[in-house]
Amino acid sequence: MRQYVAGDVLLMAFPFSSAGVKRRPALVLADTGDNDVLVARITSSQAQTPYDAILRNWQSAGLLSPSVVRADKLATLEKKLVERRLGSLTQDDISFVAAAIRTVFTDWMQS
Predict the structure, then answer these.
(1) Nearest Cα to 35, choosing from 62, 63, 3?
(2) In this structure, what are the phi and psi dihedrals at residue 99, rounded to the nearest 5 degrees?
(3) pTM for this one?
(4) For residue 9, with 0-12 CB atoms within 10 Å meaning exposed, 13-18 middle and 19 or more buried, which class applies?
(5) pLDDT tens-digit series, residues 22-77
(6) Angle at 64 (CA atoms; ends 85, 41), nearest 5 degrees
(7) Higher-confidence residue: 87 or 14?
(8) Helix (H) or strand (E) segment spanning residue 72
(9) How many CB atoms lie within 10 A of CB 27?
(10) Which residue segments constitute the domains of the chain, with CATH numbers given?
């Protein structure tokens, strides 16, 4: 089974709660070496919450349009849903995503 690294951008069949699955990019957050990968949803929609990280270098990540990582939309998905690797985030964009993820969990701990 292929191994991915944090920061990889994948094209995969991403499940949605209301409409089955949709082909979309996803950001790898962790791959522990089993059949699953932890990812965050990537969208071309505008940022809507403090949990959204706007990607400044979206082209170098292999994305087709300006994009946002939804740090509050995480999923553990089977690697068999991966179609292909598109690219990877720059270190600056990884820092933006990390800050958004910290915000998600800081807010959760303060609840």
Answers:
(1) 3
(2) -65, -40
(3) 0.92
(4) buried
(5) 899 999 999 999 999 999 999 999 989 999 999 999 999 999 999 999 999 999 99
(6) 60
(7) 87
(8) strand 68-78
(9) 27
(10) 8-109 (2.30.30.110)
